[in-house]
Amino acid sequence: MEKSALSPSRGHRVHEFPELRLKEIHEPPYRIIYEYDEGQLHVITIVHFKQRYKA
């Protein structure tokens, strides 16, 4: 997670919701879903790889 805080553009779009500004990084066995806005990184949720994210 520290790497994302230093470089928030590193993550990629959340494939379940491509229209939202959410990004994710993988930290096996988890997906860390976050939003980066106005210089702040907000963790939305942490989901196990075997689960689908449902907003």
Description of the molecule:
The protein has one helix spanning 2-6, and strands at 12-13, 22-27, 30-37, 40-48. By secondary structure, the protein is mostly beta strands. The chain has one domain (2-48). β2 (22-27) and β3 (30-37) form a beta hairpin.
Count of β-strands? 4
Q: Beta-strand level of the residues, as a percent range?
A: over 45%
Give me the secondary-structure category: mainly beta
Main β-sheet description: 4 strands, antiparallel
Q: Mean pLDDT, nearest integer?
A: 82
Helix-strand string = HEEEE
N- to C-terminal distance = 21 Å
What is the alpha-carbon Rg in Å?
A: 10 Å
Total domain units: 1
Number of separate helices? 1
Shape: globular
Approximately how much helix is present in the residues? under 10%
Flag low-confidence runs. none
Q: Strand arrangement, largest sheet?
A: 1-2-3-4
Chain-wise SSE layout:
Layout: H1 2-6, E1 12-13, E2 22-27, E3 30-37, E4 40-48
Antiparallel strand pairs: 1-2, 2-3, 3-4
Summed up:
This protein has 55 residues and is mainly beta.
